[in-house]
Structures are given as C-alpha cells and as structure tokens.
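Hi L.,

As promised, YibE/F family protein:
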Amino acid sequence: MLINKFLLIIFLLLLAIPGNVSAAEPPDSLAEVNQETTDEFNVQEYDPADDRYYQAVVTKIIDEIYDDDLLIPAIERFSQLVEVKLLQGPKSGQTMELSYAPGSTGNGDQDLKVGEKILVVQTEQLGEEVHYIIDRYRIKSVVYLAIFFFILVAAFTGWKGIRSIIGLGFTIAVIVFYILPRIIEGGSPFITFLIGGLIIALISIYLGHGFNRRTTLAVLSTLITLIISIGVAIFAIKWAKMFGLGTEEAFYVQVGDLATINLRGLLLGGIIIGILGVLDDVTTAQAATVEEIYKANNKLSFRELTKRGLSVGHEHIVSLVNTLALAYVGASFPLLLLFKTQSYMPLWVTLNSERITEEIVRTLIGSSALVIAVPITTYLAAYYFFRFGTARVDK
C-alpha cells in the first residue's frame, strides 16, 4: 500500500513537468538566469593603474561644514567644499567642486586655503568617473630643499661634496633598481640586502671620499664591521623572537603579490642598510683622524698612535650613540605617544611588543656597530701608517 502511494506521487510530479522541457534543461535555464543577473549587475573590475592624477589649485572655499562624527559622537567632524581648477593633463583648466575632510578638530591647521596647490585623483566607482582630493602638492618644496642642500654641501666641501652627492645618487639607484626589484621578484631579502650593501660600501664610499689609501682602510674596516654586525643582528633577531611584524607596513606586505616575502629577512636587510649609513661616517672619520695624527708626528709608536686615535674615537662613539638613538626615537615618536597614552597597559607589556622591541633592537645593533667599528678602524689605520706611512702616506 505504501509503495502504491509513493508511485502515485511520482506519477503526479511527472505530469506537472511541461512536455517541451527535458529533465536536463532546468540546470541550463538556471545558469542562463544567473548569467543574465550577473551581466546586469556586472561592473568592470577596478584597476588602480587606470587612475589619473592631476595637480590642481583651490580657487574658492564654497562651504565649511561641522558635523558630529558618526563613530565618536563627542568629536566634531570638519569638512570643506571647495572649487578647484585642474592644472595639467587632458582636463587642464577644468573646474569642479570637491569635498575635503582635513580632520575631526577643524582647528585650521589642515584647512585648504585659496591658491593652495593640491593633488586630485580621477577614478571609477560603480562605472562612474569620480574625483577626490588626496593630498597637498609638496614636490616643489622638496626640490627646492634638495637644491639648497646640494649647494650647501658643494659650497663648504667643494669637489668632495659633489662626489658625495654622486655617491648618494648611486646608493639610491642600487636600492631602487636592484634591491627592490630583486625582492619583489622573490629573491631572499637578506641576501639581496647583503649584496646591495656590499656594492654600496665599495662604490659610494670611494665616490664620496676619493680613491686613496685612507678610503681603502675605511672600506676594509666597514666590511669587517658589517660582517660582525650581521652576525650580531641574526643572533639578536632570533633570540628576541622577532619576525618582522613590528610595523603596520609589514601587514600590507603580506597581502597580494608580496605575500611570500620573508619578513624576518626584510627586517634583517633593513638593519644592514641602516648600519651601512652609520659605518660610512665612523670608519672614514676615524681613518682620517689616525692619518692626521700621524702626519702631525710621524715618530709616534704604534701604541701611541692607536691610543690617540682611540681617544678621538671614544668621543665620536659617545656623540653618535646618542644621535642614533634620537634618530630612531624621532622616527617612531607618534608610536611612543600612542603607547604612552595606553596607561591601562603595564610598561613591561608595552616594551615587550614587537613594535617597540624592533626599534630597540635596531638602535642597539646600530650602536654596537659604532663601538665595534672604532677600534677596528683605529688599529688597521695605525698599523698601516706606522709600517708604511713614511713612504706611502697620502699627500
């Protein structure tokens, strides 16, 4: 009886199916419906490379608006409606009204002023062309400051200063055209930074200080100190259990095409480049100091020459350690302020965070490199000038 009822239900269901539709057609029909729906709402995939950027100037402040912040009602949100004129590109001369939100305080420091140059981006949203104010235009100011710096260096140091600027350009070129592309292609950050650092040390120091024995002593001291510092850095990073996640940028690197990059190697490579910048100063100055002491009195013994060189080097270490620490603190000051305001968190917990630990380790490794470089350079220079100085010292 139960079987008969089941067969009757199946028979009635078959009668309900239209005769001109086969059993295989519903999936295809459903697919067609889904495709039509997709086509109806399909928007061309956004590609940041299609964005256009324009320089523009603010021609009029149309309105200034104060609203309550939706996320933090106690804070008043300030925005401006401004008229801007595009200054370049296919839309040069065109004016448009755009909104700009400088911040939540509205204290006037970040407000746009009439005549101020800005950057406008043209992009697409849901298939429509839209424009946004993204930043102020700063390139002109930076170029003028760079020109001032170059003139200052050339005026006080002459041809040596010009060579040092060429060396700086070479350093930037190595970073932009070798180190960055190599890492993006999947190369080991540590090996890439090491090779790039060696190239920078060998070429840029010679470009800046000339091809002479004093510079050769500085380069040799730099390479020896760099090798020792790399060993210290590898040990410190592993011992402190650091993985290169101490900055916000590290999280962005893990997304997209750069997700496979070794962040610990990237951290180590950054430390190597930072050490190089410090070693250039210390080794060249210390080699020059020992040479000048020898020139002043070429009858000094090796021991006395070393002693006087180290006396100057100790003062150099004291000043540079403080300078290096202040440089790192200055670069991460907003982060320090943020942690300082988090009074609910114990100090030892704050210091234990990788963000803070990373900066501390950078400072300590850089300072250690300074301390190591001074005696190495002093002993090498003193030995050379004591043994060969009478016949070979650079004039």
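Confidence is low (pLDDT under 50) at residues 1-34, 36-43, 391-395.

Thanks again for sending the construct details.

K.
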